[in-house]
């Protein structure tokens, strides 16, 4: 047993239970438009089963064939926007996020060299639009709170824990971010990632 314990000294720690989480990667595309840097967003097709009509960034699930999360973000962006891989430059990572809904999200930022060549995949993308980066610099998001309450199964062994059925479960709060740009509502994880990106830019000033 001592030998097995010593082998653990060389182990690189990871996120506990990460193998049970779905891994997704997204790309925040930057484009030049009218001499200003814009962020490009997608509106998901209404024909999609998951989150139809939602505003998001290009991205999707990390496949076993992907070299890493960055490769997955680039692949998904090429598929959704109809562009070639060599049109994506200067890719860098943001902080990854662990969702309370069993997902690890890896966001990346990159520049699209030829935005005029974008031909969105109509089966996945209803429309695309851009927002000047300056808008997010000048606008603070509205933040609302969602409370998640524990709901144990009927056969949960309350008799085995202190307090039994009166055990005080700790509630979980989710902060939902909202930006309003013209007629578009950018919210949820998409808005939270935008805010994180802007805060990183501010930290370099």
From TrEMBL:
GO molecular function, one term: 8-oxo-7,8-dihydrodeoxyguanosine triphosphate pyrophosphatase activity
EC number: 3.6.1.55
Requisite cofactors: Mg(2+); Mn(2+)
Keyword Magnesium set for record: yes
SUPFAM superfamilies the record matches: Nudix
Entries under CDD domains matching the protein: NUDIX_CoAse_Nudt7
UniProt cross-references to PROSITE patterns, sorted A to Z: NUDIX
Domain Nudix hydrolase, residue spans: 21-152
Keywords: Hydrolase, Magnesium, Manganese, Metal-binding
Gene3D superfamilies: Nucleoside Triphosphate Pyrophosphohydrolase
PANTHER family per UniProt: MITOCHONDRIAL COENZYME A DIPHOSPHATASE NUDT8, NUDIX HYDROLASE
Name of this chain's protein: CoA pyrophosphatase
Organism whose genome encodes this protein: Anoxybacteroides rupiense
Source organism phylogeny: Bacteria, Bacillati, Bacillota, Bacilli, Bacillales
